[in-house]
Amino acid sequence: MSYKKIKNMTAAILLGCAVLSQSCTSWLDITPEAQVNDKKIFSTPQGFKDVLNGIYITASGEKLYANNLLFGFTDVLAQYYAIPDETHEFAQLAKYQYKDVNISPKIDEMWLELYFCIANCNILLERLEEVGPDFFEDERTYYILHGEARALRAFFHFDLLRLFAPSYKADPGYTAIPYITKYSNKVSPQKTVSEVIDSVIVDLKAAVTDLEGRDPIFDPLYQATTGSDMYMWTQPMPDRNEFLSYRGFRLNYYAVNALLARVYAYKLDKKQAYDYAKIVLESGVFKFTDYWKITSDIQYRNRILRPEIVFGFNVPRMTKVFEPYSPSYSSSKKWLTIKNSEQMFEGSANDYRLNYLMEHEILAAFDRPSCIKFVKPENADEMTEEMGRIAPMIRISEMYYYVCEYLMDSDLNGAKTELQKLRNARNAKEALIANSPAELEDVIVNDARREFMCEGQLFYFYKRLGRKVVDESGNYTMTEKDFVLPLPDVELEFGNRLSELYK
To answer: What's the CA gap between 308 and 304, in Å, rounded?
Structure first.
């Protein structure tokens, strides 16, 4: 869809639907009344905060990070699941049939929703720059709003790039996607893969500057209230407003640094990825989940390893969204069961990810376990139920992978030591056998298969490294097109876009 159409839809949603409230579902026309609402929304500091919250709410919908870009679409591409039959909604997606009548609309939907979020980031940023820091009760509120909006804009563009263009390793000069930084009715030109990555980095570094020293994580009074590893700095600020509270899973200072590590790794700049990953790991804010919280009875189990999440979306209906796909609750043909788990966990029978984050009993007859990260256990207490509401986007485990990838070229043993820290936390304590960087990369990739289950990141991991996707039959044969989603037809027709792989 052309950006002009997205712009019109976005303005209608933002101005006519009370800042992207969850109840807003219809597209409206732009009217003078909507323009008045625009002024009203941004007439108070609270209006700016509501718009930022609205962007998070939109992104945490099923079209994006509560389904398609979490356990659904992208994990199907990573060949995690045994698709039961040809009637399954993902049957053709598992074969990379992107033009299928059931798959193509999902792709178009993701494109539109991500650019919709980007457009709202741009609106928010422009209004912030119009009013300046003095408009707010505390100037750091301005910088937190500004920093998060820029970081979100980068985050959404980066995922569009990872979906709709070849990797940097495959073709840095490929004509990819528009990087849109202004709210306008003009069609923005496409940029190359390399240019998009550079634009993402510019936004993220600006966000770091905005947030450094201002994010509440740096507040000693706030830090004094965060002794619980279950709610790592997600509690309310003492005697402060709600906006400065509950920041543990937003795109806060450390989450932006973690995202920079991810982007530099995608750009194959191992040193920069290492440096930003170390900022996160050495912060002391995040730590591995205590073993007894992973191995406890299901109704109390920490299934998403919450203390390790650097960034995630709050999805109040997460367990309901996941329910139709889980054999624990459903008898439908929407089941998504994990295939090839024996090979994935070979030699690691005691791995917590195998024994406590997957269900084996219900489908014993089918020899197919299922992921239980987002399943609501019977008789779960309030804390356990709350844990199922976070859709993890970045974990500290990913930071360990980047540290290892950098070290392994010059210090193989040091890299293995770092990876073993993660493996020990997962009770995968068997000997780590890798006599070369290539062999260690194999170990890292297989560990990522265990780690990212139902979290949407493995497909990108394969793509970044130029690895073949692993299937039960061995390495899945992938074409160049299989790694790249086609641009929506309306973009090609009305937006004058190029699609080099889909001519």
So the answer is: 9
Res 123 pLDDT > 70: yes
pLDDT in tens, 184-207: 777 889 999 999 999 999 999 999
Residues counted in the chain: 503
Report the half-sphere exposure of 37 (CA within 13 A, side-chain side).
16
Alpha helix ranges (H) inside 302-436: 318-322, 341-344, 352-355, 382-387, 396-407, 412-425
Host H or E run for residue 259: helix 253-266
pLDDT in tens, 319-366: 889 988 988 766 667 889 998 888 899 999 999 999 999 988 665 446
β strands within 114-228, DSSP E: 175-178, 190-192
Could you give phi then psi for residue 333, rounded to 5 degrees? -90, 20
Q: What's the angle, vertex CA 359, arms to CA 289 and CA 71, rounded to 5? A: 75
Distance between CA atoms of 77 and 492, rounded to whole angstroms? 24
The answer to whether 235 and 219 have CB atoms below 8 angstroms apart is no
475 forms bridges with which residues in the sheet? 470
Q: What pLDDT, in 10s, does the model give residues 421-476?
A: 999 999 998 889 999 999 999 999 999 999 999 999 999 999 999 998 987 766 67
